[in-house]
Amino acid sequence: MAQRYRLDKGGRIDRDRPVDFTFNGRAYQGYAGDTLGSALLANGVHLVGRSFKYHRPRGIFSAGAEEANALVQVGEGAATLADLKATQVELYEGLSARSVNCYPSLDFDIGEVNSLASKLFPAGFYYKTFMWPQAGWPMYERFIRKAAGLGEAPLEPDPDFYDKRYAHADVLVAGAGPAGLAAALAAARSGARVILADEQHELGGSLLSGRDEVDGKPGSDWAAEAERELRANENVRILPRSVVFGYYDHNWIDILENLSDHLANKPADAPRQRMWKVRANQVVLATGAIERPLVFRDNDRPGIMLASAARSYVNRWAVRPGESAVLFTNNDGAYAAALDMKAAGIKIAAAVDLRAEAEGELTQAARDAGIEVLAGHGIAATEGHKRVRRVKVAPLSADGRSLAGEARTLNCDLVAMSGGWNPTVHLHSQSRGKLRFDAELATFVPDRAVQAERSAGACNGTFGLADVLGEGFAAGEAAAEAAGFSVEKAPRPQAGNGKFLPARWLWLTPSSKPVGHGGKHFVDFQNDVTAADLQLALREGYTSVEHVKRYTTTGMGTDQGKTSNVNALGVVSEFRGVPIEELGVTTFRPPYTPVTFGAWGGRDVGDLFDPIRRTPMHSWHARAGAEFENVGMWKRPWYYPKAGEGMHEAVQRESKAARESLGILDATTLGRIDIQGPDSAEFLNRVYTNGWKTLKPGAIRYGLMLGEDGMVMDDGVTACLGENHYLMHTTSGGAAEVLAHLEEYLQTEWPELQVYLTTVTEQYATAAIAGPNARKLLAELTDDIDVDPDAFPFMSWREGTVAGVWARVMRISFSGDLSFEINVEAHNGLHLWQTLMNAGEKYNITPYGTETMHVLRAEKGFIIVGQETDGTVTPVDLGMEKLCSTKKDFIGKRSLSRPDMQDPNRKQFVGLLPDDPNEVLEEGAQLVETVKSQPPMDMVGHVTSSYMSPNLGRGFALALVKGGLHKHGQKVYAPMPGKTIACTVTSPVFFDPEGERLRA
Amino acid sequence: MLLIPCPYCGERAENEFSYGGEAHKPRPEVPEEISDATWADYVFLQKNTKGTYYERWIHSHGCRRWFNLVRDTLTHEIHGAYRMGEAPPKVDEKTYV
Amino acid sequence: MPEATEPLTAASPLAAVWEPGEHGRIGPQGPGVTFTERRDLTLASFQARRAGVEALAGAASENLGLALPGPNDSTAGDGLSLIWVGLDRWLAVAADTNGPALLQRLGEALGETAAVADQSHGEYVLQLEGPQVRDVLMRATPVDVHPTAFPVGRVVSTVMNHTSVQLWRTQAERYLVVVHRGFARDLFKFLTTMSRDVGYRLP
């Protein structure tokens, strides 16, 4: 019968809107307003999963985020979601869910054999078993993964898209139960910008599950009124289905909002989830409390659930979670569940109460209602495989550590248990707020706040409803005031003020045998950690709470110990005879509940993962079929393959053309810094190793820039544009770092210097034409620049009109050949390039990319910072000592005279010629002088660059070799798999060593 | 993400800034005249205090100015920001073990 | 290789990705935001020389008729706006396309009080305008763009899509984003992706 366990009336469900769904392939029906959990219970389905390690049958055990058992896989294919808590999944038409961690089926699970062999799965099982041999790990891992797997990750790319938004609030309120609503009302009334977030779709929190009255009306009505007031205030943003999961420094808060997971028809072009990143001036935490289970023998059978959950199912969802219930409690508050269940027609077999004197307002009410109260009793055992069938109840000794009489059997299909309450202190703890053990509540409550936050209500250890509301209003007012708003105190609503006390704190309910010798006393349901496991960990010497937690995996599941942490501490405390407050508490870390990867990524995926910087000639390169390379954030042409060419062929062709006739390179990506001011030359003198005071307008000079540690950090040419006006070029990838470096010294060390830096990298587009025909081509395209070698010598620049537009032409060369770098305003870059390509056709002008650029400069022995250097290379190591002025100080100079820098055996820059001219060494290959039959060998250096040169007709390389400057002519060897490559150390300059072509 | 009070632009999110290490560590006037050890100390060693720390930041995506910050490196509490050359604010200094 | 069909035009760094029309989820109110390339603007940067900010402010006021804006602020005059970008540094934004003219004007007006640099080609200006523009910006920047925190005229140097930008509110529902030219295309892609939910129009 459909929804056999649905009550005839009541509940916050819409009976006019039935909802069809499937679970493990079977069709069921629930109502709008149900969770998957409440709908399953309405259909009498308790068995929903298998436990992690022992594959024991497990049922729905809670009604919220603390659920440890009812993990489900929702949806199919690419959109499937793993390990959702059935108690949080909102029901929608067509929802399809299945259990995780069961094979081949939930009803018949092979893994349950683990349960019989549980002696083989003690705490620290993995550490003990999968130790040797190490080579077996791939196999162990496969086994562990298969055995331990919970849900399944989809194999296809995520079809959904996600949103990420930043927001700012004067007051952020986490949780919209009575305290949160009160705080939001108080803060909003002051005019503050308020964000109120709650993980559920309905605001009201505990008011939706209980039967408390506020100001003489049902609590849920008061919540609805509060919501109406808040919604009418434009300064308030209400976020339902939004869990505040992360609390970081300076009140930076992460919220995950669900936008469409609960919808049957997911809207097109709308995000699935939204990550809110909120900066809040003040935070009010009103996150409530989570009920603790009790630790007793076989306390994990389906049908055993938290008392508050049973009460929620009855009141909020109009579901009978059983026909015949046993209440098992250590406190007075849980009797509310018994009373509400009884009122809903559920038979209460008995209330088993650990307290020797079972007293209190609600206990008395239960007695008055005819419920049998067994004071000083505990559940010593439970029976029933896929559903609890009966429990054995026995009186306890005075100290509660043993049974003290005959057990009595109670038939039941539901056990509602309550071990007290844990304030949800996760966010307070994440914010680095301290916790304090409250002996009366036997739990941790917030102590001192470190950030601008305050806790209110149950999460603060306050349980009477009137007190909760009062604290909420007070917190909202205080937060608004702290954010600079003036507050008028509102009268507090009237409400009852019953607390769940008195209680008796007995952490482990005894059974007929010691723990570990019959049955299992579960502490952590999700990780299958029992009291016996904790005891074993202690016996094996793990006494610190953090060690016990890691060794046993307590609190490490997707529920992050919401129900197990304090019980584990209590059990450890009893075993060790040390008070809980002396054991310490583990730290809570984000996220409070699991967050999908998609939400973290937001839209910063695919092409937006990392922005790309493009030159004005990019479209030309793309159309020419260039392969691109990332250099810094730039996309640069790497090589331009023609039909049928691979990289090797293309680079050989490009390299040859650039030497024999004419090549063209997009050099736009160089960093450019405009330097003005009367002290500019002095500044250049300090930041470069060489001297700058003699550089005249029209001239260009190469500079080497060091860090203060003496290591090469950048190089490039600087042009003197005019009196006290320079244009510095940096490497393409180093521009930002260099600018920061220069600004640092100007602003922090030498503020007296009158120097003004402006980054102008993108103002210009640059085409470098290189090769014997470069001058001829340039001459054709300009009327006002005299290109004669005497009029326009190497290392100078001229301004004029090229290809009809303003241009600054620099006669510099990174290829080693005659070369001009033509700079035009960026918008004219493509025009310049196209004009050069057309006019250069007769010279077979050949566009070349960064790879050919590397070959050409390497033939010439020019370094590339970041390739020949790696932060450990000095100018001396590079043989560039003559660039280091002895007449002035410069950044890094002092470091060059440190003893380590003077070591003649430092790795130094050399060329390498493999004996076999067809050999191309691998970049990064290690070099040795003495080859042994097997490693280890003494390494003397490594290859930094290596190419096949069509111009040299052989392979060649650049390398750093110990003492290499004095080893020219000697042999070194690169031992590679299968062969050893013999090479001769040479000068790094292979091409035109006299620089005749450069200066032609 | 820290909220950093740039002395020029006001409070901005940390992703606009870059870190610059220990503050109040001037470059030696005449590096040639100091010992290798003193120079190495200047170049390589920082106090890296666990507690109140005087450090440099640059508002790299903002005004591009370097400035100093007094920050508790354990709690990330920021006690103040001040311009280069200015005296640091009076702070009740803390160190942790 | 989709890029092989890129249009060969120098006119705009967005030429390859600008598809006129309405995109994303267009609600009954129409597109939430409209993008416009502001290639009608010319930019130059200037910073105060040692003579000091007061001398520069005097020169700006006397010769440009504009007050030098303070931190995070801008001033607007006839065809010329000044925006603060950092200590003693400003961007001049002229409502015409003549870069040399702006340089000359600034040079003459500010003389030795400022170091001026042409940015007319290096910087790109994208305009976002429409009823949902704030919604889009909330996805794009952690800067507080609430009207109380970001009034008309405010300009901040900040980071967007990992890139330095100036975000400038010139009208109630209009913001300009100034970005280095080479990043313009990916910033545009970023901002249109953030506009998918509210729908956007490319004229």
TrEMBL record, chain A:
InterPro entries: 2Fe-2S-bd_N, BFD-like_2Fe2S-bd_dom_sf, FAD/NAD-bd_sf, GcvT/YgfZ/DmdA, GcvT/YgfZ_C, GcvT_C, GCVT_N, Sarcosine_oxidase_asu
Highest taxon of source: Bacteria
Keywords, comma-separated and alphabetical: Oxidoreductase
Gene3D superfamilies: 2Fe-2S iron-sulphur cluster binding domain, sarcosine oxidase, alpha subunit, N-terminal domain (3.10.20.440), BFD-like [2Fe-2S]-binding domain (1.10.10.1100), FAD/NAD(P)-binding domain (3.50.50.60), Probable tRNA modification gtpase trme, domain 1 (3.30.1360.120)
A UniProt-annotated Pfam family: FAD_oxidored
All copies of domain GCVT N-terminal, residue ranges: 617-888
Family the UniProt entry places it in: Belongs to the GcvT family.
Top-level taxonomy: Bacteria, Pseudomonadati, Pseudomonadota, Alphaproteobacteria, Rhodospirillales
Domain SoxA A3: from-to ranges: 519-601
GO annotation terms (biological process): tetrahydrofolate metabolic process
Entry's Gene Ontology molecular function annotations: sarcosine oxidase activity
Organism: Ferruginivarius sediminum
The protein's name in its UniProt record: Sarcosine oxidase subunit alpha family protein
Domain Aminomethyltransferase C-terminal per the UniProt entry, residue ranges: 907-992
TrEMBL record, chain B:
The organism of origin for this protein: Ferruginivarius sediminum
The protein's name: Sarcosine oxidase subunit delta family protein
MF terms in GO: sarcosine oxidase activity
Pfam families assigned to the protein according to its UniProt record, in alphabetical order: SoxD
GO biological process: tetrahydrofolate metabolic process
InterPro entries the record matches: SoxD, SoxD_sf
Source organism superkingdom: Bacteria
TrEMBL record, chain C:
Name used for this protein in its record: Sarcosine oxidase subunit gamma
TM stretches of this protein: none
